[in-house]
Amino acid sequence: MPIKKGKSSIRPVKKKTMVKKRGRPRKKEVQQIEEQKKEIKKAIKRDYLFAVGRRKEAVARVRYYLKKEGETEINSRKLSEFFPTFTLQQIVKKPLEVVKLKIGSFSIRVKGGGKRGQAESISLGIARVLEKYDSNLRSPLKKAGLLSRDARIKERKKYGLKRARRAPQWQKR
Fold it and tell me: What CATH number is attached to the domain comprising 94?
């Protein structure tokens, strides 16, 4: 070690070594981390497309399997079992009828809300998945009004009222 002479005393000077600093990482380190993340994403390639549909309190998570052939499955049950009424089945099938698609199968998890809200949330989820599958299907789905989320939800109850807007009965005395 070289010796540095100063006013007070003679002391050895340490050579500077490359020590990793704490705090923000360098650009190269950030790039390496991003490349590793991309490689991991490539390794975990899914065999399905995914979308979420919502209506009122109902939330539907839709998976579209391209390679599988089968019937639409909702909460591990067939469509006809889950929605026994014809009108609700039509609501669910409408996006498929608009684009005339008969390839692949759907696996759907739905929770919350009533049966009608669940059917409409599934319909939105299927329409969104089909749009991801082929962007050319967007225009027919949009024209049929299947890609728009219906934002109407239940209004909250206010204090001093019985419901959202229902006031208590007025008494003269």
Answer: 3.30.230.10
Tally of domains within the chain:
1
Distance CA 1, CA 10 (A): 12
**For residue 173, is it within any domain?**
no
128 burial (CB, 10 Å; 0-12 / 13-18 / 19+) is buried
The C-alpha atoms of residue 93 and residue 87 are separated, in whole angstroms, by 10
Global pTM value? 0.71
- Is 5 a residue whose pLDDT tops 70? no
Which one, of 103, 108, 113, 101, lies nearest residue 124 by Cα?
108
Report the DSSP pairing between strands 3-5 and 10-12.
antiparallel
Print the domain residue range for 122. Answer: 48-143
According to the model, what pLDDT value does residue 22 have?
66
- Determine how β-strand 58-65 pairs with β-strand 77-78: unpaired
Residue 36 binned pLDDT confidence (cut-offs 50, 70, 90): confident
Asked whether the predicted pLDDT for residue 45 surpasses 80, the reply is: no
